[in-house]
Write a structure and sequence with these properties.
Layout (H helix, E strand, L loop, with lengths): L4 E3 L5 E3 L5 H4 L7 E9 L2 H11 L16 E7 L1 H6 L4 H4 L4 H5 L5 H4 L21 E7 L2 H16 L4 E10 L57 H4 L3 E10 L1 H10 L4 H12 L17 H4 L10 H5 L10 H5 L16 E7 L16 E8 L3 H12 L22 E5 L6 E6 L3 E11 L2 H8 L4
Antiparallel strand pairs: 1-2, 3-5, 3-6, 4-5, 7-9, 7-12, 8-9, 10-11
Helix pairs in contact: 2-15
Cofactor: heme b
GO cellular component, one term: cytosol
GO molecular function: heme binding; metal ion binding; peroxidase activity
């Protein structure tokens, strides 16, 4: 493999250096980050902004020391590409979910009730989000340096307006607002030279994640045209999710007999202990040493280690969103995603059981070449229903929309346990479907002529 091109197992050359680095590299640990949404009021100004941003956007994989790296990524909504003057013929060639936008497909992906677009934080779902600029780094100083030129471009380009900004950072505990370590898993993508987090996972075709290459079906995924626009790009679902940490704690407290029982129930709902140690490998107690070992904390399969779900329930959060080799309806490899969760807001103080009114949660980024059979399928079938694991009507215990009426089955011997009257522990504050182009495509958009 050269610096510019990797070879897949089938000999397909992957133009790694043309792929925005934000698409491929795992999230740094620790991390500081920022998401910015821009509205383009003048297409010429929007293209001028892109020309100023392109030098800040890197391609390819991390350098020799990825822990000291920082990068900026730029993506566009359908309305954003239209605002920049992308020809209608090209706009029509994008996937239907992308063209319609996340808000229009809310019912299909379970954004209902308090999570419905009518309750979203502006400017999500308004059509005014045109460009999404994200940056991640290992510390605030490197983040500021990575964003310096971008911020100047935002504020010195008339006709482009910064309309939303969200800072994200790893909490001092290294965990989410629910108290669990996040960002542990990364798929093994064929031909990239970037090892997956699970040593037992066979490489997944690059076309599941990057356009222009064969996917798991053996064919090429539908790609926007012309070729220069679609190739080496990917789709991104961006979500702002509010987490109800106090409700989570109250439910655990009300349904357990003590601290140890409470910790075990939380782990059964998530599928891992707070440290990140998987229940499949350590079902009785947390094991921080195992969790800290990247060669061990993902080294498991469900059929081999826990086919009946007596360790990690089939309905647990991590087993639902990545069933691995578990016996399910369908093929899990067809629905893999690159997932990145970044935390925003302050942690709820330790021991507090009442909501303090603070906005806290995560900004989730879900990357894949097929919005419909990856992100949307996972949300509709794996998170919001239980048919695929034999529990019809049961939703993800952590990410499902329960509204006080949810139920979850936890296999146990001699008698299974049934959790009832689950409230919703998360609420969608907004979301957008974006297209993350390759670097050549960025230059093509920036140089468009009327």
């Amino acid at each position: 493999m050269t610096a510019a091109t990797g070879l897949s197992g089938a000999g397909v050359g992957i133009e790694i250096d043309d792929i925005q680095s934000g698409a491929l590299r795992p999230r740094p640990v620790p991390y500081e980050g920022e998401f910015n949404f821009l509205r383009v009021d003048d297409r010429h100004a929007g293209r001028a902004l892109l020309r100023r941003l392109i030098p800040t956007i890197g391609g390819g994989l991390a350098g020799p020391d990825p822990s000291r790296d920082a990068w900026v990524a730029v993506a566009f909504t359908y309305q954003g590409l239209r605002a920049l003057g992308v020809p209608q013929e090209s706009l029509d060639s994008f996937s239907r979910p992308f063209r319609e936008g996340m808000a229009a497909r809310a019912d299909q992906i379970g954004d209902v009730g308090e999570s419905a677009p009518a309750n979203w934080e502006p400017p999500f779902g308004t059509g005014e989000v045109h460009i999404a600029v994200s940056a991640l780094s290992t510390d605030a100083a490197r983040l500021a340096k990575a964003l310096e030129r971008a911020r100047v471009a935002f504020h010195e380009t008339p006709g482009v307006e910064l309309i939303w900004q969200q800072e994200v950072r790893q909490l001092p505990t290294g965990r989410t607002t629910f108290g669990f370590r996040d960002g542990i898993s990364h798929p093994n993508i064929e031909g990239l030279g970037l090892p997956g987090s699970n040593p037992r996972e066979a490489p997944i075709k690059a076309g599941e994640f990057i356009l222009g290459y064969p996917c798991e079906t053996g064919g090429l995924p539908p790609m926007p045209s012309p070729d220069v626009l679609g190739r080496n790009g990917t789709y991104v679902a961006v979500r702002k999710i509010h987490t109800k940490a106090a409700a989570w704690r109250r439910y655990l407290r009300a349904n357990t007999s003590g601290a140890e029982d409470e910790a075990l129930l939380a782990a059964k709902m998530v599928g891992r202990w707070p440290s990140g140690a998987p229940l499949t490998l350590t079902p009785e107690h947390d094991d921080p040493e195992l969790a800290a070992d990247p060669h061990r904390n993902n080294d498991f399969l469900y059929r081999e280690n826990d086919e009946q779900g007596l360790r990690c329930p089939a309905g647990a959060h991590i087993r639902r969103v990545n069933p691995r080799d578990a016996a399910i309806i369908g093929d899990a490899r067809m629905h893999r995603l690159i997932r990145r969760g970044t935390t925003y807001g302050p942690p709820l103080p330790e021991g507090v059981l009442e909501d303090d009114g603070a906005d806290r949660g995560l900004v989730g980024v879900f990357i894949g070449a097929h919005l419909e059979r990856q992100f949307e399928f996972i949300k509709a079938e794996w998170v919001n229903d239980g048919n695929f694991i034999g529990y019809p009507g049961e939703q993800d215990p952590v990410a499902g929309h329960h509204n006080g009426t949810g139920s979850v089955t936890i296999p146990e011997k001699p008698v299974r346990r049934r959790l009832r009257n689950l409230p919703s522990f998360v609420a969608t504050r907004g979301g957008e479907y974006c297209f993350l182009p390759g670097l050549r495509a960025l230059r093509w958009i920036a140089e468009l002529q009327d």
